[in-house]
Amino acid sequence: MPDYQAPLRDLRFVMDEMLDYPAHYARLPAGEEASPDVVAAILEEGARFAREVLLPLNQSGDQEGCRLEGGEVKAPQGFKAAYAQYVEGGWPSLAADPEHGGQGLPHSLAMVLNEMICATNLAWGMYPGLSHGAADALRHHGTDEQKATYLTKLVEGTWTGTMCLTEPHCGTDLGLIKTRALPTEGGAYAITGTKIFISAGEHDLAENIVHLVLAKLPDAPEGSKGISLFVVPKFLPDADGNPGERNGVVCGSLEHKMGIHGNATCVMNFDGAKGFLVGAPNKGLACMFTMMNAARIGVGIQGLGLAEASFQNALAYARDRLQMRALSGPKAPEKAADPIIVHPDVRRMLLTQKAFAEGGRMLVLYTAQMIDIVEHGSDAAEQERAETLLGLLTPIVKAFLTEVGFEATNEGVQVFGGHGFIQEWGMEQLVRDARITRLYEGTTGIQALDLLGRKVLMSQGESLKVFTKEIHKFCQAEEGNRALAEFVRPLAKLNAEWGELTMGIGMKAMADREEVGAASVDYLMYSGYVTLAYLFARAARQAQATLAEGSEDAAFYRGKLNTARFYFERLLPRTRTHKQAIEAGAESLMAMSAKDFGRGFEL
């Protein structure tokens, strides 16, 4: 069975030293609650819960899967008890508003816990995972009555939430949905339709499930402008707010999936189910985006957690596995062969995993600061800037971290060789579980269009300029730091090039809008690599400063520098390929007609 130790040392480096979280928390209203002692206790207890409670259920949950019995789903053995411990420990309410029963701590702390959960048991983590987004949607858009009825239950974790978007005939194009909402007496609506791919849509972990459902009213405009949002509980709350009469929503079947077997991915049938409008009629998509944005960042954290888990186990295996001798001569002459960690190609794979895990952690924690400021900041200008950065970074967090997270889990299998392909080691499960992260909550292609089309080009590049200006200031400030030149010089060059590439795409798109779609994924990946380069440069600066002062943990800081150097020399050059693909334009993609794609393969 794979092992896992929460990377507390690396978390402390990023939070306390590189991003100065203590000062960040001190600037937030009620931030004094997130004192260093409180933060340390949360991280340590979260690490214990993840390793001791969730990790032992990961492989067994994958092998057992979920069972559908008479419309009721049974989660794998041990999942329900683990969820009860999670609720008893107060974890669901960590970052929620005290007004609704939350602890009022910054959202960034909950995101750190989320990484540990994703690394140890992604399938289990998806049961409570969407509840936070459902709570946010109701907090921002629900009526006072809806908040009183559902929000406290979601916050405390006794009820869980879902978001029901996709239908059999449509995926991301929600304007095509067919689910209908008919007005009934008392201001309620009868919801009828079928939703698919609903994570945790039915289970036995919590006493009630609150579905947030997209549907169309009888007089709704066509397309996405005619979508409304409804809250549809599994059990209708009684007069005391407890689960009462069973509503007209049932799980029709469970999807048979490549991975995340321990999570119930459901086909949900709504047959005149009683629902209640959330927000204004025909404005449901805007309401749902509150939930979707939280979910997108959550999925990016899934990619990070799986990369870290794969790296830790690949590293342990590489230290123990004996095979061949080092090309430069035996490194363990007392043994029959050298451990494979001495071989350059194994080190390449391990360092790739390490760089993506540590770089991804820096990106998530940097983005988490933006969330804290947007949610709790007291300075309007700072909030506006943070919101702009959050909008820019959200598709990068989601898509880039899941792409490289999947790469990292694949490298983990490769380090194990044939043993990685065998179920008992658990490495192949990480690959299967990681594969879905590139798909749900919007594929990489959808995230790329959001980044390039909506966030960058539609703002005439202004949102990007907010971030590139920050990078430019960093490079300017370190221009005379010779020790940091190996990082600052290539970063400064790429930062300038990022703006030039963006302008070039925009100019081409004025003549042919297909240029945006042709460039988008390469643009997103390019953006992700440059973003991590900025963060690695900051980490290198911090490591150099600490080493110069003298540190008892010098090996850790030297490791930071070596990882940053590997990233700049071995991974950052991938931007060259993405740049060349972007500049190639749309012509070679769009020249062939759809019917000619299969020429030569007809039966």
Largest sheet: 7 strands, mixed
Strand content: 5-15%
| Tally of strands | 11
Mean pLDDT: 95
The SS-based structural class is alpha+beta
Order of helices and strands: HHHEEHHHEEEEEEEEEHHHHHHHHHHH
Q: Please give the alpha-carbon distance between the first and last residues.
A: 46 Å
Quaternary structure of the protein: single chain
Radius of gyration: 25 Å
Give the helix level as a range of percent. Answer: 55-70%
Low-confidence stretches: none
Number of helices: 17
* Inertia-based shape: globular
Domain Acyl-CoA dehydrogenase/oxidase C-terminal: 282-450
Pfam families: Acyl-CoA_dh_1 (PF00441), Acyl-CoA_dh_C (PF12806), Acyl-CoA_dh_M (PF02770), Acyl-CoA_dh_N (PF02771)
Domain Acetyl-CoA dehydrogenase-like C-terminal: 467-592
Function: Involved in the assimilation of dimethylsulphoniopropionate (DMSP), an important compound in the fixation of carbon in marine phytoplankton, by mediating the conversion of 3-(methylthio)propanoyl-CoA (MMPA-CoA) to 3-(methylthio)acryloyl-CoA (MTA-CoA).
Structural descriptors:
11 strands, 603 residues, alpha+beta, Butyryl-Coa Dehydrogenase, subunit A, domain 1, Butyryl-CoA Dehydrogenase, subunit A, domain 2
Outline the secondary-structure elements:
Layout: H1 8-18, H2 21-27, H3 36-64, E1 67-69, E2 72-74, H4 79-88, H5 107-141, H6 144-156, E3 159-164, E4 180-183, E5 189-199, E6 208-215, E7 228-233, E8 235-237, E9 243-246, E10 249-254, E11 265-278, H7 284-320, H8 344-376, H9 380-416, H10 427-435, H11 444-456, H12 462-477, H13 485-511, H14 514-549, H15 554-571, H16 574-584, H17 587-590
Parallel strand pairs: 3-6
Antiparallel strand pairs: 1-2, 4-5, 5-11, 6-7, 7-11, 8-9, 10-11
